[in-house]
C-alpha cells in the first residue's frame, strides 16, 4: 500500500509549495522539473532521489500513476535540480522491486513499512 491519494492531494497543494523551495538544497532531495503531457505547462515536484553511477532512482511513494511520473515517462526524461545543480535525465523506466535493491538499507526498511516497491530509474543525459 503506497501513501494514500488524500495525502498526495494535501502534499500537492500544501507541503510541496513549502518543500519545493528547499528541496534542491538538501542532499538526497531534488526538484523534478517536468512538462505537462496535455497542458505543456512546466511543473516542479520535490522528491527524494538516490544517486547511482549511471543516474538516479526515485522511490514512487504515491505509485507509478502519479501525474509527474506519467509526464516524465511521456517526455522521455526530465531535469532535476539538486544541491544547486541542474541535471538532465533521460531514459526513464519503471521498476517494480519488492526487495528494494537500489535503496540504502535504512530507506528499504521505511519503504517496506509503507509498501513502496515501485521506482523510477533515470539515466544522466550526456
TrEMBL record:
InterPro entries: F420H2_quin_Rdtase, Split_barrel_FMN-bd. GO terms for molecular function: oxidoreductase activity. It comes from the Bacteria. This is Deazaflavin-dependent oxidoreductase, nitroreductase family.
